[in-house]
TrEMBL record:
Its EC number is 2.7.2.8. It is found in: Cytoplasm. Keywords: Amino-acid biosynthesis, Arginine biosynthesis, ATP-binding, Cytoplasm, Kinase, Nucleotide-binding, Transferase. It comes from the Bacteria. Residues 6-243 form the Aspartate/glutamate/uridylate kinase domain. Pathway: Amino-acid biosynthesis; L-arginine biosynthesis; N(2)-acetyl-L-ornithine from L-glutamate: step 2/4. GO terms for molecular function: acetylglutamate kinase activity; ATP binding. This is Acetylglutamate kinase.
Amino acid sequence: MIKETLKVIKIGGKLIEDETKLQAFLLDFIALQGPKILVHGGGNMATEIAAKLGFETKMIDGRRITDENSLKVIVMTYAGWINKTIVGKLQALNCNAIGLCGADGRSIISKKRKVAEIDFGFVGDIETINTSFINSLLKAGMVPVFSAISCTSEGELLNTNGDSVAAEIAMSMSELYEPQLFYLFGKNGVLADVTNEESVIEHIDRNKYGELLKDKVITEGMLPKLQNCFEALEKGVSKICLGNERLLSKTSLHTEIVK
Ligand SMILES: Nc1ncnc2c1ncn2[C@@H]1O[C@H](COP(=O)(O)OP(=O)(O)O)[C@@H](O)[C@H]1O
Ligand SMILES: CC(=O)N[C@@H](CCC(=O)OP(=O)(O)O)C(=O)O
């Protein structure tokens, strides 16, 4: 049976905070035909708000150490201001968006990460995606907009990297669709030299990924983006691309992850 394409798009913090870039992206997004899901981060804004409240932010390998105070800040920032602002803008463009975190409709159930070498605090690793609930929204013509907050089956909200949320949704939805995954962030793609926007690496396979990790070409926020990509390709995601805010509309520079 040929499955319908489902586009899962993740937008990052730097894009969200730039009004012009966000609007350009949203116009491309609403023009996409067929079922689609938007996932957003917002790490930068959470860090700024936490600083204003006098809380220091610690990140390890692109993931936030989330204590009780930072959990409150991130829930308010991601599931509140950012999620509702994006939904409002999409509704203004006649796109029937619905904003969600993992608790809504038990859509993203996670488990608190066990303390190993690092105690990440209130950070969740995703266990199940409620594919039938998400599909019912899609079938009703809605566009789910997910913030990077998951929830345990006991109702505890947990911080979950937005890149992982997007990858897990794409992988799980492959039961029903042929998902494609797009990461839109502040650069033209994965760069061989992070200071040179023209140095986009057009294709990355497992071997190349290993080399890039070994040579520390991929660091910080790029790590969670690429971590799940090869698993996603094995688990039914048919295409994975990374690029800037115009990735959906243009054919110029970007990175594609290949088997
Ligand atoms: N090889 C690389 N190519 C591009 N960006 C990289 C690379 N290595 C590390 N990065 C960093 O990763 C960042 C993207 O991750 P992140 O800030 O989490 O994005 P977002 O929040 O927009 O999704 C880039 O802005 C850049 O600073
Ligand atoms: C556990 C963890 O790291 N969660 C991320 C979730 C937000 C996110 O992914 O934001 P960007 O896409 O803007 O980076 C964080 O709090 O930064």
